[in-house]
Amino acid sequence: MEIAVIYATMSGNTEAIADCIVEGLHRKNYSADIMEIPDIYTMEQVKNYDLVYLGLYTWGEGDFPEECLDMVDGLQGERWDGKHFALFGSGDRSYEHFCGALDRLKEILINRGAIVVAEPLRIEMAPDKEEEEEIFEYVKETLKGAKISNKV
Ligand SMILES: Cc1cc2nc3c(=O)[nH]c(=O)nc-3n(C[C@H](O)[C@H](O)[C@H](O)COP(=O)(O)O)c2cc1C
Asked: Ligand 1, from 37, 90, 93, 98: best to mutate by most atoms within 8 Å of Cβ?
């Protein structure tokens, strides 16, 4: 089973969540390819995976980060029927739309036929110890959601 963890980060918080997701996957004996946006150039790279963890921080007023716009366009331009996605990101509760980019991303993916396997995981800034546990639980929930029964 092929799993990718793809993320965008400006100050490292979303990257810390991505690293924790990879660790959570290892604990369940799954491996994953981890990639930072904008190093993903084609949707073909995304299509190769059975489960894609996609992480973004939120910018502006609930907006996508600038470096994600090409990828969002790419996602919008394809059908993702039956493909499993799990969304995560960092934000700041002092903004009106906490992790708002994740709501927008979820809507786009669902409209294009994707299965978003759990509610997006929203972390305030960088994960603390308690939130790391939350991330490990999220990994378990999303693996179940994706109905992955075979180990990599
Ligand atoms: C100009 C600006 C706009 C932001 N807008 C939002 C927002 O609308 N919603 C939110 O939850 N966080 C917002 N944030 C907070 C970032 O998403 C937050 O700092 C996040 O942890 C950054 O993640 P990163 O370390 O992965 O880059 C904003 C930050 C800046 C500097």
From this structure: 90
Separation of CA 33 and ligand 1 centre (Å): 25
The CATH number of the domain holding residue 85 is 3.40.50.360
Contacts of 138 (CB under 8 A, 6+ apart): 21, 24, 86, 88, 118, 121
Q: Which of 5-19, 31-45, 76-90, 91-105 has the lowest mean pLDDT?
A: 31-45
Count CB neighbours of 44 within 10 A: 10
C-alpha span between 85 and 47 (Å, rounded): 11
ipTM: 0.99
Q: Give the pair of three-digit tokens for residue 77.
A: 């331009």
119-56-75-3 Cα dihedral, nearest 10 degrees: -70
**151 domain-assigned:** no
Strands 51-55 and 84-91: parallel
